[in-house]
Amino acid sequence: MMRQAVVVGGGAFLSAVILFLFTAGQHLAISAWPDALFGSGASTLDEIILLYGLFPRAGVAIISGAALGLSGALLQQLLRNPIADPSTLGISAGAQLAIVAATLFFPQILDGNRTMIALSGAGAAAIIVFALGWRSSFEPVTMVVSGMLVGVTAVALSSALTLAQGEYLMSLVTWNGGSLSQQDWSVFNALSIELLAGMAFMLLLMRPLLLLGLGDASARSLGVSLRGIRLAVATIATALAGFVAANVGLVSFVGLAAAALVRGCGISKPSAVLVLSPLAGALFLWLCDGAVQVLSGATGETFPTGSVTALIGGPILLWLLPKVRTLRAKSPPVNTTRRIQFPKGITGLLALLPFILVLAFFVGNDGRSWAMLSYADAAELTPLRWPRLLAAAGAGGLLALTGAILQRMTGNPMASPEVIGVSGGAGLGFAASLTLVPAGGPYSLAVGAALGGLAAMSIVLAFARRQNLPQEKLLLAGIAVSSLSSSMLAVLMAAGDQRAWQILAWIGGSASSATPATAIFLASLSLLIMLVAMTLVRWLTLLPLGQATSHSLGVPSMGSRMTILAVCGLATGAASVLVGPLSFVGLIAPHIAIRAGFVTARDHLVSSFVLGALIMAFADFGARTVTFPYELPLGLFAAMVGAPYLIWLVGRR
Amino acid sequence: MKAVLQNYREMSTLGSRDHSEKSNDDRGEREAGKAFSVNNVGLTIDGREILSDVTLEFPPGEVVALVGHNGSGKSTLLKILARQLAPTAGTSTYADRELATYDNRSFARSVAYLPQDLGTGSDMTVRELVACGRYPWHGALGRFSAVDREKVDAAILVTGIEGYADRLVGTLSGGERQRAWIAMLIAQDASSLLLDEPTAALDIAHQLEVLSLVRKLANDRGKSVVVVLHDINMAARFCDRIHALKNGRMVASGAPSEILVPDTLRCIYGIEMNVIVPSNTSRPIVYPL
User: Fold this and answer.
1) Which one of A36, A43, B156, B250 has the largest count of C-beta atoms within 10 Å of its C-beta?
2) What whole-number distance in Å separates Cα of residue A214 and Cα of residue A208?
3) Which domain holds residue A580?
4) Which residue has the higher pLDDT, A355 or A595?
5) Residue where a domain stops, chosen among A258, A288, A320
6) pTM of the full predicted structure?
7) Which one of B16, B176, B189, B194 makes the best mutation probe of the A interface by having the most chain A beta carbons within 10 Å?
């Protein structure tokens, strides 16, 4: 066991050193180093790059990795949760959001207070996630689901803030978070002190922390003050993540990977995991950064190291998922929703339509105040506005329909195209078709996105089926796939060629690209898919009864699932070409529909479709006008509304 | 596990041909002469033997109990009969026809299965849940006919759940929920019922209630029933025949009076048990020493 750890650790260390020497050697031959290091000081440009660029960068990679590794190990021990990590708990993203907000609104206080601002952001995110977890007594999967949703919301907010300020370039800064490039030793020095302080506190808390691993009741009966120790450990872990975020930006999943690597080497003693995780994190990040530098040296592109670690983190999360135990009691929540008469309910929904039409065609914002347009003005603007309205409504309807279908098929109230990774897969398909068929036009993009979405959905569901994952884990598998694909997209974008702009525009989602032709295409497609979905109603009534029951009633298990999956993949692909990967309409609309009393499969599908179309039409209005003259991405606007609803839902259950 | 899923998938695709021949006449009586038999059946998953060399008959019109210790393979055997799992060895037949050759819906018209873990279905009313049992007859697109409606009403009456037919399943107590699900199986109008521990989560009064209902279905309607039970006393009281499994093998089979013998019981459960006949009843009672 120990030998395996030494071999893996030694191998990683050697590879990292070799990568470093390779990169550094390209700037200055190693034989010239002693002179540069101990000589009269840097004089040539290459010597300066070595001394103030490459060495500090390696140092920062090591220190940040160690800090994140420690933070992750502390959170894992604290929550008894092998998938806890500053990034899966939303803490890093919270820090990032605070920095972005400060940069945009209070640039004067940012200078010198960067660390404080990042810490407050990280702290706020941690408080939200812990408060949500409190109600389910820190059940591991619920914690991480809430954390990742908080993270997604924070990232959406950061992007929306930057875009709303009109500084489109800043959006690249947001995505570029996690670059480890350095100009001097200041970051290294600051982080080292912070890390040492964190380690000192950890050693003080080591004993009670280890007792905490026995379970609340045992720890309490041994005289550990649960509240105090939890608060202290959470503070240290949050602070460490905040320090790293303040100095180098969003570096994801290092804590997760570090502890997983240590455990993967067969070391499971909690104290050993706590001590070795910082080491593993340091090696991991240094190695990743070395690989990134060699790669970018070879291709001439620069990748932010943070998004590269996220590429590794997604698969690790999937790999760990089956090992996480779920504490939740099995009793299903009693649903006492009052049913609504279908004609009455659907009429009520459609009554909102005139209201939205008036908003869409007659209300404007000139950047200073809101105004009603005259009839003539409205008539003049109509040709510009109807295609995007129709397209947005069609996309919303499709996403909501898919969400309703997936929720019924998986028997999982949290399933939706965005959440189970379909949208992320659609993004990769989109990027692939941009690359492979550059001259393809919107239809080949739609096909690419549909295929990508279908692939991602099949992977997540097949994975869930093979491992027999319960509801919450399915959700997590989907989020892992989503974050994997979004970090792949981030890497593609950071590569920075012209396609980046198209992908960036797509991630936010915008209806402004809709033409009359695409709008009509999307609207007809959504109606067609709605009709097809109506023929699936019987299956969707039986499938929630469980695999065994539906099979014994004669529903073809594979056939029905494949058909439904194909419909969903097609629908999501077509919709997400327009509104981007993140909107949560597919999750929210079916929920509101159920809560409103549309319970049977048919009612649920139809009402979700209508509601989704209405929500998206309204979101289009909001995205277009709220920050006029700049347009908010449609998907981001919807996500800002949707993600908090989702977080509330997770916390409430 | 992978191998099982593989087989399972193959079976599902095999059976996915859709026979829409539909005859809603009273098949229950017509099919009463049919039942299950398994011959040298075995199931091996990842090199681990779950069942081996089981040969058993399940006579028509009888209530047969499958008993045994935890992990003895009784639920697995029931799943094989229900076509939820495909055996890796031996043959299993229903009405003298190999199970794998049935297609999904025509099998569902003959055999109904109650899994141990019931899906929630909690947002349905009891009546809607019972109506789900009609799927094998009307299929994905067929009309929900007057016959379907009659069968649902009849099933609700027979199980005595008409008092809460319009309540949501999620609001029912354990015993009521179990009855609602059994009503769904009855609406399915199959001549054979496979029940996996239908009394597991119930108190003693509800156990009696559910098993009496099962007994009544066999007596009055000629249904063949196979039921997995933990409680050997309940099995002896309500069943015509008991098959006992141990470590995946058949160890005893016979009428309750043949099974309720200390030697046989020791063989099944591995502990000493005594059998007495209380003075106020003719039914024997088993208790561990």
Assistant:
1) B156
2) 10
3) 342-652
4) A355
5) A320
6) 0.73
7) B16
